[in-house]
Amino acid sequence: MNVSDENLAELFEQYKDEVRETIGTLDNELVAIEQDPTSSETIFSLFRHMHSLKGSSKMFNVDNIANIAHRLEDLMSLIDKNNSILPKYPKIIDLLFKGNDIFRDIIAKLEDDITYTTMTVDHVAFVGEIQNQIDKINRRDTQLVDSARKLVEDLEALLPAMEEMEIEHLKKDIQELNNGLALVTLEEEGANQIRFNYNGADLTDDVRAMEELLKKFNDGKATPEDGQAFLDAANRLYNSLADVATEDAMSLIAELGDGLSLFSERKLEMDQMMVEFFAAMLKELKEKFHVEVEAPAAKVSGPAKSQAKAQEPQVKTIRVDEAKIDLFLESVGKLITKSEILNHLQFSFRQAGIDTGLLRDFSTVSRTISTDIVNLQRSIMEVRQVEMNNILKKFPRLVRDISHKIGKEAEMIITGERVPIDKSLLDDVEQAMVHIVRNAVDHGLEGPEERVAAGKPRRGTVNIAVTPEEASIFIEVSDDGRGLDLEKIKAKAIERGVLTEDQSQTISDKDAAMLIFNSGLSTKDQATDLSGRGVGMDVVMTNLKKWNGEVLIDNRPSHGLSVGLRLPVTNTLLTKEAIMLRVGTSTFCLPLEFVNEIVTVPADSVHHHKEGAVFRHRDMVISVIDLKGLLGLSDVDAAFYAQGKGGAGQNLGEFSLGEGDFVADMDEGDGLKGGVKNNNIFIILRGKVDSRQSIMADEILGQQKIVIKEFELETFRRLPYFNGLTLLGDGRVVLILDSEKLLES
Amino acid sequence: MPLGSGQTVLIVDDSPVMRQMLFNIFANEGFNVVAQAADGEEALTLFDLHKPDLTTLDIVMPKIRGTEVLASLMEKYPDSCVIMASSVSDARTVMHCLKMGARQYIIKPYDEEKVMNAVKKALRLG
User: 3-class DSSP state for residue A545?
Assistant: First the structure.
């Protein structure tokens, strides 16, 4: 019985996730090792990750990753034993980066083609490259052998002079060293010529037999009889050795004996492990019994080492299909609408004069349901959240690659990796950040010489800081480069027809800096293949707008540039608090985040000019958006309308909204009506104190939670002043006003 | 017939995929996986807590290596049944673990059959 296919498919998804995560970690560790190439901690961690990659990839028969990781593990294991290797061979780091890119590529291809698991020509070539590197390192050891040989010669020359002294042991040492060198030489000349003997016993036949059998195991051609034959040969070898062994060879022979008995006692399978075990033993035996040399020190990584190693936080996770969460959210969206229906019903009952204990119970229950649904929705939204690290982890590598390519030196500092962000934002935010960071390195940072000349550190810094704010997250990418050359930008903008000569005289520095987000502008005369083509930064604006985010820029000429991205968290929720407006006979929704203050004023206090309407409020002239005029709505007689609806008639005068806790009364459905009766209108002042902009409405109908449905039809999307629609409790469909677009009008 | 009859199992591996894979295999064969550890430190804590009938132990892990976990376990609970499950295949490590008292040593990649063969021998079942 085997683990079911469905399980395997699920596991395979997990495997790919795990590899992707490892790739991200490797990128960062490689950047770190480049800066500190002797850090034994990072070296060990790299080794460990290659080792794990090999293990899990073998498990899923992803041979290409397994093979490459295996070879890189070998390489890292060499480096782990001798941390002076990396400074000597800095090219190894490029090799490791390349390996990581290949892993990334394989995982991406596996997404479309699950059979992309075998070695391609490129993969084979890359493994060859790694092997060359390993050989190169080992050859260096051969050079050591050469110098040792020289030393032996020198010592031998001294021997006659030492004849009189007690130098027997010294002679022996020299002899052994010499023999060791002879072995190295012989192996180079052709291992098959060697006969193995120990104190007169010729072991060649057994050793050869075992080698033949091992080859069969390795080729997968071995039969169970071969396994037995192998163990027999090994036993014979052991017995003949045990007879003749002298003290110095004893430990190795004992080990072989232990191995044999342990393997038979535990009935271990004759599998790859046994093959490897005996192969290693044989290799040592060959060395041992041809000539006496010191057995290579066995390297079982010591205890002291690993304890100090990487301590990574482990986060327990479950995998949930994103589509399932979306489906779940959609249901919650429907529930919210339903609970608004309950609210509306309750309101209608009360209006109809029904006020019983039953209704009060109903009200309580309906309110509890609303709260529960909101909590439910919130927790689902949290499930959708991932840490910013998902995006951030790729930047050290990005900065490294770009700066290397163009001969700059750059350091990346990141803070706020753990700030949560909604998954749906990831791609757009990442894309925007990549453009900003590229521009920072490519255009912002000066070359090392220019920096030194300007009295700055040789190495430039790119800083990414992510800060959670109350209802948004703020991502700031800053560099300590040269900043923006506003004159150059303006000149380019004029050249491209984005700006007129006149405008360029009056444009503020801030607005001029913002021009870099305009498509088709580039400040670099020479296009590089990185970000000099003037494309890219407009993507930042497009992506941020899509999520109602804002882009801020702080240009400090010759000190650097800082680009801030503010993304509202609430926008990732699909519900919003909104107020309902009546304008003429139409009802609209206006998200509460737009609303700071609502005042009622006599209709005639609003002055209509050619350029638009204004009114005076606390000694400020505030421009008023007249939806009726803007949207061409029929101007129904307000009094008539009020009569038809039966306005409640209370003049609320002026009131301010606290942190959105107003309209507690409105929840009861009373609304803010009655201004109409006195021929008053409502002016809604927008969120920002200094904005001096407002929207005019005939009536505020109430506040409620709305579920935003984005327009699905392109026709609707082109509507100038709206960004979606919602279903009200009474079943009416209402358009949602897009305050940003309105204010631009 | 499943091989196991509710014997408790502790799975130790730093790779979640590997843990899940072993979990599936054990669950499928009637064993009761009581805990999973992602590093050597967790392994020791969870072993103390559950005293499982069987432990599968990876070697290259953060914090404490599997070989040291094995040494501690053997010192404290000499009779505990541990199967090494690692992709470390060098002879000395294998020997070292078996000498210390690991009942079996399986090398990645393993499949259900390989794992269960090792379990059968380690627990002297069937």
Answer: helix
Contact B87 A54 (CB under 8 A): yes
Among B15, B24, B68, the residue with its CB nearest the CB of A303 is B68
**Do the domain assignments include residue A139?**
yes
Dihedral angle computed from the Cα positions of residues A142, A143, A144 and A148, in that order, rounded to the nearest 10 degrees: 100
CATH classification at residue A89? 1.20.120.160
Distance, in Å, from the CA atom of A322 to the CA atom of A421, rounded to the nearest integer, reads 15
Which of B18, B62, B106 is the closest to A56 by Cβ?
B18
> Quick check: is A171 in a domain?
no
Domain-located, residue A147: yes
Q: Is A422 found in the same domain as A326?
A: no
CB A553 within 8 A of CB A509: no
Residue numbers in B near A73 (CB within 8 A): none
> Is A379 in the same domain as A390?
no
Query: Which CATH number is A243's domain given?
Result: 1.20.120
pLDDT exceeds 70 at position A425: yes
Chain A: residue nearest B124 by CA? A266
Q: Are residues A536 and A583 in the same domain?
A: no
CATH value at residue A480: 3.30.565.10
Binary contact (B62, A56; C-beta < 8 A): no
Cβ-based contacts of B87 with chain A (< 8 Å): 51, 54-55, 58
Query: Which of A20-34, A421-435, A675-689 is most confident?
Result: A20-34
Number of domains, chain A: 5
What is the C-alpha to C-alpha distance for residues A64 and A57, in angstroms, rounded to an integer?
8
Q: Which residues of B20-50 are buried (b: 16+ CB within 10 A; e: fewer)?
A: bbbbbbbbbbebebbbbbbbbbbbbebbeee
User: What pLDDT sits at residue B54?
Assistant: 96
pTM above 0.80, yes or no: no
> Are A419 and A559 members of one domain?
yes
Q: Looking at the structure, do residues A68 and A111 belong to the same domain, yes or no? A: yes
Give the one of B39, B65, B109 whose C-beta lies nearest to A301's C-beta: B65
Query: Do A44 and A99 fall into the same domain?
Result: yes
Judging contacts by C-beta atoms under 8 Å, the chain B residues touching residue A277 are 89, 91, 94-95
How far A321 CA sits from the closest chain B CA (Å)? 17
A182 within a domain of the structure (yes/no): no
Across the interface, which of A3, A61, A258 has its CB nearest the CB of B24? A3
**Which residues of chain B lie closer than 8 angstroms to A52, CB-CB?**
14-15, 60
Question: What domains lie within chain B, and their CATH numbers?
Answer: 8-121 (3.40.50.2300)
**Which chain B positions have a beta carbon within 8 Å of A16's beta carbon?**
none
Provide DSSP, A274-342. HHHHHHHHHHHHHHHHHS--PPPPP----HHHHHTS--PPP-------HHHHHHHHHHHHHHHHHHHHH
Residues A407 and A375 in one domain: no
Is residue A631 helix, strand or coil? Answer: helix
Neighbours of A360 (CB within 10 A): 12
Looking at the fold, whether A445 and A566 belong to one and the same domain comes out as: yes
Give residue A41's Cα distance to chain centre. Answer: 23
| pLDDT tens, residue by residue, A142-192 | 544 554 455 455 545 544 444 443 344 444 544 554 554 444 433 433 333
Structural domain ending residue among the three candidates A545, A570, A595: A570
Say which DSSP state A672 is in: B
Distance from C-alpha of A41 to C-alpha of A34, rounded to nearest angstrom = 13
The string of pLDDT tens digits covering residues B104-123 is 888 888 888 889 988 988 88
A670-709 confidence digits (pLDDT tens): 344 443 445 778 888 775 555 577 888 888 888 877 877 7
Q: Do B68 and A271 touch (CB under 8 A)?
A: no
Of A273, A309, A311, the CB nearest to B94: A273
Residues of chain B by 3-state class (helix, strand, coil), percent to 5:
45, 20, 35
Q: Which domain holds residue A132?
A: 1-164
Strand partners, A411: A461
